[in-house]
Every structure is written in C-alpha cells, then in structure tokens.
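Hi W.,

Here's what went into the run:
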Amino acid sequence: MANKSVWSDNRFWQRSATWITGFASILLIWLTFDTSAQISMGTDEDIQNGVKKKVPGATVINYRITYEMDAKRGHEVPVIGGKEKFFGRDDWSEEEAAAMLHLGKLGSQAKNCMDCHTLLGNGAYYAPDLTKAWLDPAWGPDGSMQAMTGKSTKEEAIAEFLQHPDQYPTHARMMPNLNITEKEAIGLVAFLKHMSSIDTNGFPRNFGKIKGAINGK
Amino acid sequence: MFEPFTDMVPSFFGWLNQGPLTLTIFLHTVIILPMFWIYAQEKKRLENEK
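Here's what came out:
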C-alpha cells in the first residue's frame, strides 16, 4: 500500500468531527442552563437584602432607580436606591406588582409597541428605545415631557402620555392614539420601570451620554 | 489581552467572554489540541497497518 497521509484518512476527520460536535453540544447545553439561571427574576427579599440580580423582582417598582456609571464595567448600570412612591404607594406587594407587570407586558404586546419602539434589543428604531425610557430625564421633575403633560410625577406623566399620545406634539413621527386605558397605562409604566432596572450590560449603548439624557452635558 | 472580570454574576461563560483572546484560547485548547492527539493516534494506526 502506498504511503497514506493522515489528512486523507477518513477516520481522522470522523473522530475530529465527533469530538468537536460532542464537546460543543455539551457546552451549549451547559450555556442554556447557565443563562436560565442568570436571567431568572429576583424576589422582593433579594431587593431588600441587596442581592444583585440581572432581572430584579417585580417589587422594584417601589424603589428609586438610577443609572450610574460603573468605572470598572465601563458603562452605566441601573442602581436600586431607597423607597420611592409609585402611583402614590411604595408598598406594592409582590403579587400586586407582578400583576401590574403582567398587565403591562400583555399591553405592550397587544398594542405592538415593538412595531416602532425597541424593548431590550427587540423591535424597531422608528421611535425611541424604551429599554431605559423610565430613566430618561425628560420624564423627570425638570423634564420637558413631564412639564408638557402637566403632571407632578414621572409615572403619572408617562401614564397620561400613553393614554393621549396624539395630544402631545413630541416629534414629527408622533405616537398614534392606541386607545390605551388608564389601568393598562399604569401597567405599562410599571413594566417600563421594571425594565429600566434590568442590568443589560450597558445596552442601549451611550444612552446616558446622549445630550439631554442622563449624565448628558 | 486579558481584561478584568467585571460581570455582576460570576459565571464560566462570563469569564470566557471577558476579552478578545479568552474564547479563542479556550476553543483552541479544547478543539485543536485534542485534534493533534487524534492525528498522532491515527498516524500510528496507519503506520502499523502498513
């Protein structure tokens, strides 16, 4: 038999392919379980005990959320601060908060927010990214959006806007009236507030550096 | 080349993703190095067959 090269030998490639496929399968199955654990929602207890979760529990709506630069990580991260009233209360129970988030999530799907907006990287860029919308100073005490709605708190201002978006001239691409009810609007605001507390590794990039936004000069 | 581990929740996959070279080195270690070993085995087998 002529000198046969290993490179043209079928068994070498078979064994290599088996090894790579098998190892990659194990790695990907492990990655799936690792990810599930990392993106699981925290509880009220976690928030009270300062246990950091990428996705905090629903009762995070009872707390002030800020977006602060983390020098070590090189981007802004949501920081859960002290208690803050949300629609007049800062003692929403886990069940109540979860029900509001659920209503908000269903509402965001029913009204198809993602048709124009982006939520956590999914959706369109026809309208502003909503991932960190709650943290946008335009809705804050000195913000133009809050002033425009004539409300005194951020949550009331956003809820008012969501119910009558066609009454407020915000942009050439004005948001249409989607017939959102007051209850749905409250749910949507809770949904947005909770979403802003999710640690998204700095996404959307440069949100805090846009002029007029957080830390924007 | 190697960047400090800054993920909020420590994880093996977080470690893999910390810098441009960590994943490359890891995959070369677990895929290419065993292929050298497979190559050596197959070469030995072919020589013995002769």
